[in-house]
Amino acid sequence: EERLGERLDEYRTIGEEARQPVAEGAVITATPYLEGFQFNPPSLSLGLFEPWHRFDFKLRATTAPLNQAANGRLTFTVEGIIVADLPLSIFVGETVTKSSAASVSRKPYDAIFCSYSRKDIAIVRRVERAYTILGLRYLRDMISIRSGENWSEALERLIEQADIFQLFWSQSAAASKHVEMEWRYALSLKDKPENFIRPVFWEQPMPPVPEPLRHIHFAFDDTLDDA
Q1: Predicted confidence pLDDT, tens digits, the chain (227 residues)
Q2: 138 neighbors 110 (Cβ within 8 angstroms)
Q3: If you write DSSP's letter for every residue of 129-143 in order, what string do you get?
Q4: Which of 3.40.30, 3.30.70, 2.40.160, 2.60.40 would CATH assign to domain 5-104?
Q5: Can you list the pairs that 4-12 forms with residues at least 24 positions away whose Cβ atoms lie under 8 Å?
């Protein structure tokens, strides 16, 4: 309110309380995805040291068509693990108009299945740190079950229970039979939402993507290999 003053009512209110306490000092990264728009900065990371935090972005339309609404999302990650998405929607017109006040809520993800190769040590460490920070039982169970060598019904149940399936794509993951079994099973779940499978990659050039996954957007994050 102090920052926006009388303009507060022009902005939409979007929010949801976290179900699990996040450790003080944990770094949260927010990344906007909205086709046809350019954001500055492209992503923003903040350490949780205050009672509340604000993520400020500047944006401009680049290739977004006129007189249409552009829909996207603002994705929040901890240690590269997707923990929440908030919807973004902007109508592109020739003149500036006021936004109608609205409230939109989205629940943080409780069940994030992380599919990765154990040869990608930086990713293994990130997932373990994310569990320590977030304290999610699902992540603990996933780490425990994935440490086994064989495909199991317990692994299938975890994928079925997942809110999202985050695929950490690398040369090692592309060559891993276990990772392949995981993403193929995730693809077979027809009752999941369209954006259930969320691939990310950090190697350049991007490792070849199998035909069944080519219709899905792969997001680039060059910080993922920082152990």
Answers
A1: 555 555 555 555 555 555 556 778 889 999 999 999 999 999 999 998 988 888 999 999 999 998 899 999 999 999 999 999 999 988 888 776 655 545 555 678 999 999 999 999 999 999 999 998 988 889 989 988 887 767 788 999 999 999 999 999 999 999 999 999 999 999 999 999 999 999 999 999 999 999 999 999 999 999 998 76
A2: yes
A3: HHHHHH--HHHHHHH
A4: 2.60.40
A5: 9/101, 10/98, 10/99, 10/101, 11/99, 11/101, 12/99, 12/101, 12/102, 12/103, 12/104
Report the Cα 184 to chain-centroid distance in Å. 20
For the beta carbon of residue 7, count every other beta carbon within 10 angstroms. 9
pTM above 0.85, yes or no: no
Smallest CA-to-CA distance from 112 within 98, 127, 101 is with: 127
Fold of 112-220: Rossmann fold (3.40.50)
DSSP strands (E only) in 110-213: 112-115, 164-169, 197-201
The total number of residues shown for the chain amounts to 227
Show me where the domains of the chain are located. Answer: 5-104, 112-220
